[in-house]
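wait is this the right file?? whatever heres the structure
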């Protein structure tokens, strides 16, 4: 489940970046006078967004289908009518999903039909009526290889209601059509999963061993039972040792699961800041027509260093605040006099540890949902202090604020943040940060929001000092 989800999530991150980019929206909806004007904008588009670099490094390939007759059909941009008649486009329209998965086939090398996985996302963030959508191809063969390399002892299958989509053995031939799920017999274990709107089930076969094979494999246990009947004291001692070992294995399993969840969260949040930061640099350079961007690049380097050096999820408050400072300085280039900020951190908290990108996630939220939507100048305040054996983190803005209904909805998501919520549309960054805070505090973290429309928003996060005083 984790291996499959993490690979699909790479496509989802690219799709979300295109979905939320105002620059991409403007490029797709601009009316171009000539093919030459479009060609020049096309080259500038890939220079500004670095999408070619992202596409090459991730191994993902995307196409954007658009309803704009002034854009030349070809390469990454296709007219919407090119999608009509395809199985995946029919599924997009019938499902009504904003984003999702489709297991299909395409013409591959040597004119042979090959299996592939399509991740699709509608590009209607700034215009609900837009029919534009991005389709990202996930390498089916590569994903099957990753699953096979898990060296899982039993045969396992990922299926939908009708087909065996992939497995760690048979039924995963990339050049053959998907096999019917009816070919599978009784399973020893099943687990329902849902990945970006695609409901599936994992089926695992029972181990098939002869009684003689099982006897040869577990002969030492048979011998142990015989010895117990003779030496009861030894039996008691061995039983205690066995219980202790099982407890250790159980704890190791829990730790491994948490680590896997953290890795999934890390890979999700990383490009979020990079795309927004690059967009700020680009907009500043275009508007000011200047070359003095060295300070902005310096701040960007701090941002990028944080997510590339992710060997450990924890970071000291003082280092996280350096990141927050760099991010807010970068945003001042974008907002100018519309944005001011103040950071106040108690010296006592500087060496405490929190998950990386925690405070900056809420600072970014204050910029986008508070300051950006307000025409008058605004402030962002970041405070960290100790009170009653709790470390308190506050992020306050004097922006647009929110209604009581919106406040309760966001607070509910923060308090109940889960892996499942990360698959939903909305404030993924906030849910991500809250989930990791819950994980390191055994769910003892407290969240609160105070907001008033037109006046601003205050987010307070309260963590018991015992969880942050040492490395998490």
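ok assuming it is, sequence goes like this
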């Amino acid at each position: 489940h984790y291996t499959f989800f993490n690979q699909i999530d790479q496509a989802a991150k690219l799709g979300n970046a295109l979905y939320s980019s105002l620059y991409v929206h403007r490029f797709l909806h601009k009316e171009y006078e000539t093919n030459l004007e479009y060609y020049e904008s096309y080259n500038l588009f890939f220079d500004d967004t670095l999408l070619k670099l992202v596409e090459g490094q991730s191994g993902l390939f995307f196409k954007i289908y658009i309803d704009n007759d002034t854009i030349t059909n070809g390469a990454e941009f296709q007219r919407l009518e090119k999608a009509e008649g395809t199985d995946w486009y029919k599924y997009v329209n019938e499902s009504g999903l904003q984003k999702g998965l489709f297991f299909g086939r395409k013409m591959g090398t040597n004119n042979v039909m090959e299996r592939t996985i399509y991740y699709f996302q509608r590009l209607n963030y700034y215009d609900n009526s837009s029919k534009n959508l991005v389709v990202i191809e996930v390498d089916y063969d590569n994903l099957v290889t990753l699953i096979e390399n898990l060296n899982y002892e039993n045969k396992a299958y990922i299926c939908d209601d009708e087909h065996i989509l992939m497995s760690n053995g048979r039924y995963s031939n990339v050049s053959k059509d998907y096999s019917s799920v009816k070919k599978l017999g009784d399973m020893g274990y099943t687990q329902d999963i849902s990945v970006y709107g695609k409901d599936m089930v994992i089926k695992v076969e029972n181990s098939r061993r002869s009684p003689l094979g099982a006897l040869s494999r577990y002969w030492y246990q048979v011998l142990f039972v015989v010895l117990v009947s003779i030496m009861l004291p030894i039996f008691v001692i061995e039983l205690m040792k066995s219980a202790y070992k099982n407890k250790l294995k159980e704890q190791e399993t829990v730790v491994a699961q948490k680590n896997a969840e953290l890795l999934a969260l890390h890979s999700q949040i990383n490009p979020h800041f990079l795309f927004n930061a690059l967009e700020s640099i680009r907009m500043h350079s275009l508007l000011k027509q200047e070359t003095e961007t060295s300070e902005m690049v310096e701040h960007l380097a701090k941002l990028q260093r944080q997510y590339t050096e992710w060997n450990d999820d924890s970071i000291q408050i003082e280092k996280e605040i350096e990141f927050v400072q760099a991010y807010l300085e970068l945003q001042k280039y974008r907002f100018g006099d519309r944005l001011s900020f103040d950071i106040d951190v108690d010296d006592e908290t500087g060496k405490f540890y929190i998950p990386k990108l925690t405070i900056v996630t809420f600072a970014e939220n204050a910029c986008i949902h508070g300051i950006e939507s307000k025409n008058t100048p605004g402030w962002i305040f970041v405070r960290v202090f100790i009170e009653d054996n709790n470390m308190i983190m506050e992020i306050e803005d004097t922006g647009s604020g929110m209604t009581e209904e919106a406040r309760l909805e966001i607070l509910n998501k923060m308090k109940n943040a889960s892996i499942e919520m990360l698959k939903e549309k909305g404030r993924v960054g906030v849910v991500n940060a809250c989930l990791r805070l819950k994980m390191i505090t055994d769910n003892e973290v407290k969240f609160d929001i105070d907001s008033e429309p037109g006046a601003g928003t205050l987010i307070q996060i309260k963590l018991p000092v015992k969880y942050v005083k040492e490395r998490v």
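The radius of gyration is 26 Å. so i think its the right one actually
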